[in-house]
């Protein structure tokens, strides 16, 4: 650990000291401003205190007598290098829970961005999809793209105050991104089904559920400002003057629709992979589109059909994972001349999946099913593959279009429930984690979109939830900045 030097801040990422400056003289997003240093110290103290409380709670939990399943779970944990034990699908609280528990205990509501005037908010259903970006280290502003009507794409910057609360300033210059101002992009994408971002190519990716004769992807690149221009945000919203649509036809279907796209990692030569109502497509970096699964699957050959979720194996962009209406978790190596698919049976149809590390895949679907699988043991045996871990309190009986995300760094899963609530779960034990702020979310219908994202000046990820026409922010910290002093 580097020693503290009075008047200086040590940046662990850059491995150097910076002289602490007064907040009104330091750059807006500087980590060495006096407010930023104070915030970071307080967050560190709060996080360590929350982790200590979680550790004490863990030590007071009554242990169950040793059973056959406990021994089996212990062997699994040792074999797979896991730091938790699963008992009949219910994870016991182990050390891996501490980070998740600590973060969850310290999360509070940090404001919202509303994409509709206050007098009209009750007229809107829950936001169908959105995307939040946190790359603007120049000004410290977040960026959000959302749609309320599944056709119009609206953008807003996300300014934050010293307490990381969403805070718009009425007298700020319109070009600063700190005044409440929504910018509509001149893009027509009917029945928007997903909004994603491919960072290596700086492309916003849009997909459409509108039935069409061809299957496609819409994309555009928001204009960027000069890196030295600190008066304007890094991304300029509402100023895109053109967009593109890539499309491909398929002889087996008259009507196409796309459920969503997954941006490829920087190491890949792909832009994204697309899940459709008749298989998977890939988009190359040269903006050409092709099928991954064979277009005419021979009889007796198993291949993905309608796909709702897909992801690349963590650390290996050649391995693709997919899930959809069939109760199967599909796996394929993109390096093969023609995709060959292996699969593991899941309890139900799959709505979401994520590669959380090189070996483990988290899957969520219908019939209240959420489970963690090990890739090294996936196969197509008749009896299927036993999950490493299940989440007994997950509730989603019949919705494909429902909010869900996981943050492996925190070890937390955020999942909208079919009763209009959002619940947090431990990725290590599968148990539900309680938090008053997030648990208080209530809606008449399921919340359709949520995601984790780290804002430019924040050390820990925040949870963003689309409730009605508003994008709500939940972050680790105190409700009021004075409470952190």
Helix content: 10-25%
Low-confidence stretches: 60-93
What percentage of the residues does DSSP assign to strands (E)? 25-35%
Radius of gyration over all CA atoms, rounded: 23 Å
Task: Tally the beta strands.
Answer: 32
The description of the largest β-sheet is:
4 strands, antiparallel
The CATH class = Mainly Beta
Secondary-structure content class: mainly beta
The rounded distance between the terminal residues' Cα atoms is: 24 Å
Strand order of the largest sheet: 5-32-31-30
Number of domains: 1
Mean pLDDT: 84
The CATH H-level homologous superfamily:
YVTN repeat-like/Quinoprotein amine dehydrogenase
Given the C-alpha coordinates, what overall shape results? Answer: globular
Subunit organisation of the chains:
single chain
Annotated CATH topology: Methylamine Dehydrogenase, Chain H
Count of helical segments?
4
Which CATH architecture? Answer: 7 Propeller
């Amino acid at each position: 650990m580097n020693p503290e030097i009075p008047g200086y801040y040590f940046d662990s990422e850059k491995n150097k000291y910076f002289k602490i400056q007064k907040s009104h003289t330091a750059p807006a997003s500087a980590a060495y401003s006096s407010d930023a240093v104070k915030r970071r110290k307080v967050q560190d103290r709060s996080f360590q205190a929350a982790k200590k409380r979680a550790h004490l709670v863990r030590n007071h939990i009554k242990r169950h007598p040793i059973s056959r399943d406990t021994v089996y779970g212990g062997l699994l944990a040792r074999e797979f290098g896991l730091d938790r034990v699963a008992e009949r699908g219910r994870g016991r609280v182990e050390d891996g829970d501490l980070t998740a528990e600590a973060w969850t205990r310290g999360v509070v509501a940090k404001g919202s961005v509303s994409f509709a005037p206050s007098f009209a908010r009750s007229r809107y259903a829950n936001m169908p999809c959105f995307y939040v970006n946190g790359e603007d280290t120049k000004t410290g502003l977040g960026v959000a793209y959302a749609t309320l009507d599944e056709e119009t794409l609206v953008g807003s910057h996300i300014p934050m105050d010293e307490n990381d609360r969403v805070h718009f300033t009425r007298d700020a210059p319109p070009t600063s991104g700190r005044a409440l101002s929504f910018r509509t992009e001149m893009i027509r994408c009917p029945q928007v089904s997903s909004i994603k971002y491919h960072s290596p190519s700086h492309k916003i990716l849009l997909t459409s559920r509108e039935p069409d004769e061809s299957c496609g992807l819409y994309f555009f690149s928001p204009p960027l400002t000069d890196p030295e221009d600190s008066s304007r945000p890094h991304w300029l919203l509402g100023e895109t003057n053109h967009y593109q649509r890539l499309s491909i036809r398929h002889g087996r279907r008259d009507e196409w629709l796309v459920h969503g796209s997954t941006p490829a990692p920087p190491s890949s030569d792909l832009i994204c992979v697309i899940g459709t109502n008749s298989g998977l497509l890939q988009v190359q970096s040269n903006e050409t589109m092709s099928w991954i699964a064979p277009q005419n699957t021979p009889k007796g050959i198993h291949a993905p059909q309608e796909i709702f979720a897909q992801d690349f194996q963590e650390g290996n962009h050649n391995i693709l994972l997919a899930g959809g209406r069939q109760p199967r978790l599909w796996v394929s190596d993109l390096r093969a001349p023609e995709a060959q698919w292996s699969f593991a049976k899941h309890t139900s149809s799959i709505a979401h999946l994520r590669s959380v590390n090189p070996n483990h895949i988290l899957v969520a679907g219908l019939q209240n099913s959420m489970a963690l699988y090990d890739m090294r043991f996936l196969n197509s045996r008749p009896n299927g593959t036993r999950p490493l871990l299940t989440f007994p309190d997950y509730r989603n009986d019949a919705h494909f279009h429902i909010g869900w995300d996981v943050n492996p760094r925190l070890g937390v899963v955020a999942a909208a429930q079919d009763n209009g609530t959002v619940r947090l779960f431990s990725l290590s034990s599968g148990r539900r984690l309680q938090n008053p702020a997030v648990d208080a979310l209530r809606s008449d219908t399921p919340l359709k979109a949520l995601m984790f994202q780290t804002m430019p000046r924040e050390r820990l990820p925040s949870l963003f939830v689309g409730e009605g026409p508003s994008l709500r922010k939940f972050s680790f910290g105190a409700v009021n900045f004075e409470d952190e002093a």
